[in-house]
Amino acid sequence: MNDSEDGATRKEQKHKAAMQKQKAGVDASIAAADTERGVSVLLTGNGKGKSSSAFGMVMRALGYGQKIGVVQFIKGVQLSGEEIYLREQCPQVDFYQMGTGFTWDTQDRKSDIAAAQSTWQEATRMLDDSSFDLVVLDELTYMIAFDYLDEKMIIDAIENRPSQQSVVVTGRGGGSKLAAIMDTVSEIKEVRHAYNVGIKARKGVDY
After folding, report:
1. Section 182-189 average pLDDT
2. What is the pTM of this model?
3. Residue 29: enclosing H or E segment and its boundaries?
4. Domains of the chain by range and CATH?
């Protein structure tokens, strides 16, 4: 065996040992996770992709034939790809939008609060229903940040939902109390965004 072959063999052995160690760690983590229940997920931060991630989970759940509910706060005036797809291709998904658009467009606090409260009734209907496997509350954090909905009411509803139901909340901010009760919290950081250098929002990518 020449030096080149010997070096390749050692590299392969080192790689195999590292992968065996990694597999042992993964297997141990899987074995330790023995609680079977729904999870609560918060997708927050200033970066792009929070709603996109949530709708990725919707697609995943659809693959297993699960029952899904989606409530969108804030959005609703401009059509989005996810709305078009769910309404036309996935009528089995219970989909509801607040429909007022962005609060900085409406500029009517009283009307926005009334719309938020009405939309929250749809959310609680789903959160109270054990037949839903997954409920997505898109942009809900803004309702807390703008003080449109009571924070404790939201937290209580999430904590008291059926045990096997999973819930995903998206949006910037939302407060430390909401984050504290969620099982999984992911913060998406913005490094760069095309919009900030004058590139228009792209259909199929941004909406």
Report:
1. 96
2. 0.84
3. helix 3-32
4. 39-197 (3.40.50.300)
